[in-house]
Write a structure and sequence with these properties.
This protein is mainly α. It contains 6 helices and no strands.
Length: about 190
């Protein structure tokens, strides 16, 4: 059984809600572009995401106490603000996907046990970002900006593959495999006097 970070699931929900905002603008012809048909891809993407993430919504029950709920609200607001102002920046997307995967890596390191991610969850991470990769690499992108260069796309893929490699190793060797044994506290013997 995978131990999945509640922050990773929260970020995926925040990403879907941000997609909703963007696709609504696209549907209302807020953007002067020939890519209007992407609204259909967007609806499919959001629909699959909401159905798919229901499988993991019980993980969000960890946000029931007031402190965790406050932190979740703060996390979501900061995510929306950053996405709103820096969506055009390629480095926002590199940082966004890095943070999402690092949240899972840290969760596995702190909690121990088996690390890793289910293959379907990892697949949805990639699937949900394909429209954005297409939008940002085509010359007729909705923001009327120069498309992302091949180097930026390569860097994004390299960061994703590197972090996924760490998550994969955690699934094989345990969530704390990178921590030296000297730093992992031992078990306390309650029967020893």
């Amino acid at each position: 059984m995978f131990r999945i970070s509640q922050w990773l699931i929260l970020q995926m929900y925040a990403f879907i809600f941000f997609l909703c905002k963007l696709y609504i603008k696209l549907a209302l012809r807020y953007f002067d572009t020939e890519l209007g048909y992407l609204i259909y891809i967007g609806i499919l993407n959001i629909g699959i995401g909401m159905i798919f993430l229901r499988k993991y919504e019980t993980i969000l029950e960890k946000f029931t106490n007031k402190w965790m709920l406050f932190m979740a609200a703060l996390f979501s607001v900061v995510y929306f603000i950053l996405a709103h102002f820096y969506i055009y920046s390629p480095f926002f997307w590199i940082v966004e996907i890095s943070i999402m995967m690092q949240l899972q890596i840290l969760h596995s390191m702190i909690n121990g046990g088996k690390g890793g991610l289910p293959i379907d969850l990892l697949g949805y991470m990639v699937f949900s970002r394909i429209p954005f990769i297409y939008i940002f690499t085509t010359t007729d992108n909705i923001f009327k900006l120069p498309p992302f260069s091949g180097q930026i796309i390569t860097l994004l893929l390299a960061v994703f593959i590197l972090l996924w490699g760490v998550i994969y190793l955690q699934s094989k060797k345990g969530g704390q495999f990178m921590i030296p044994n000297e730093l992992i506290p031992g078990f306390y013997n309650y029967y020893y006097f």
